[in-house]
């Protein structure tokens, strides 16, 4: 038997001015299965890596308060499911869920509700959480966009974002760059390229690194870049093994090619490079 479920992502948005948020949990409710469950992100590393300047305690406090609210709603809903609250069980469960996802000004909140038909609501909660929060869909391209976002946050915090723009450089050969600074003649004098080199397969570390060495060399040869380049790199998690060795080799090639290198969370080194002369 399939059960109709309503679920909502729990989002953390510490800066309403930018509208940037991170998915940090999921709530799921099914009146026919008499189920209400939730799961919240405990690890703060992902939050602080996305919002570099944020005190981790801001997230922890908001999460704990929201968890208490979810526990209160879960208790009331379960009482409704066993008939301890007068009125229709489904009506009460839906009312409680509607209140949970009602739009409000808060740094952690339930997003717009979604619906699904599932066999097992408890299992669905875990699967939806893994997809939307655990990010089981994550690909290297997605990871590189996250590196790009970290660099963007660093530039914003130093009020340098207006100096760097997304551009396509090149004539016959073109490369898309997210952070390019140009001179008065509209020629690139600095660029920052985020790179995700945290790959389990060392061959992919070499391939991706060498690909961008070649692109920078071509742009310089064609006078499309007349200044310096920096690679902001997400490095392999492990400091040992084949991927780490591959990264060490690629990093040496970067430096031999006169390309600056900084880890993607090294704001000081990135800002030293990005500073306007």
Structure description:
The chain is an alpha+beta fold and 277 residues long. The chain has 8 helices and 10 strands. The protein has helices at residues 45-50, 56-81, 89-100, 121-132, 140-157, 202-221, 242-256, 267-274, and strands at 3-15, 20-30, 35-40, 108-110, 114-118, 165-169, 175-182, 188-196, 225-234, 260-263. Strands 1, 2, 3, 4 and 5 form a 5-stranded antiparallel β-sheet that branches. The chain has a 5-stranded mixed β-sheet with strand order 6-7-8-9-10, sandwiched between helices. The longest helix has 26 residues, at 56-81. The mean pLDDT is 88.
What is the overall shape? elongated
Give the uncertain stretches in residue-range form: none
Largest sheet: 5 strands, antiparallel
Helical residue percent band: 40-55%
Q: Evaluate the radius of gyration.
A: 24 Å
Which CATH class of the largest domain? Alpha Beta
CATH architecture grouping of the largest domain? 3-Layer(aba) Sandwich
Compact summary:
With about 280 residues, the chain is α+β, with helices and mostly antiparallel strands. Helices cover about 40% and strands about 25% of the residues.
């Amino acid at each position: 038997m399939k059960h109709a479920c309503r679920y909502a992502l729990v989002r953390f948005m510490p800066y309403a001015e930018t509208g940037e948020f991170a998915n940090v949990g999921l709530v799921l409710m099914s009146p026919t299965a008499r189920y209400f469950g939730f799961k919240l992100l405990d690890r703060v590393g992902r939050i602080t890596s996305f919002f570099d300047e944020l005190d981790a305690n801001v997230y922890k406090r908001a999460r704990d308060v929201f968890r208490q609210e979810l526990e209160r709603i879960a208790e009331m809903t379960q009482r409704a499911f066993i008939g301890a609250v007068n009125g229709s069980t489904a009506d009460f469960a839906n009312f409680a869920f509607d209140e949970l996802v009602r739009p409000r000004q808060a740094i952690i909140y339930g997003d717009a509700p979604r619906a699904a038909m599932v066999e097992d609501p408890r299992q669905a909660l875990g699967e939806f959480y893994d997809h939307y929060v655990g990010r089981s869909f994550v690909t290297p391209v997605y990871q590189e966009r996250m590196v790009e976002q970290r660099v963007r946050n660093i530039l914003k915090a130093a009020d340098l974002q207006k100096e760097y723009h997304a551009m396509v450089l090149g004539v016959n050969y073109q490369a898309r760059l997210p952070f390019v600074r140009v001179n008065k003649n509209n020629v690139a004098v600095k660029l920052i390229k985020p790179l995700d080199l945290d790959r389990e397969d060392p061959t992919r570390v070499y391939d991706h690194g060498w690909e961008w060495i070649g692109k920078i060399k071509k742009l310089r040869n064609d006078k499309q870049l007349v200044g310096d380049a920096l690679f902001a790199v997400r490095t392999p998690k492990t400091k040992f093994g084949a991927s780490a060795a591959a990264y060490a080799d690629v990093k040496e090639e970067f430096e031999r090619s006169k390309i600056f290198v900084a880890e993607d969370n090294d704001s000081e080194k990135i800002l030293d490079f990005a500073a306007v002369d």
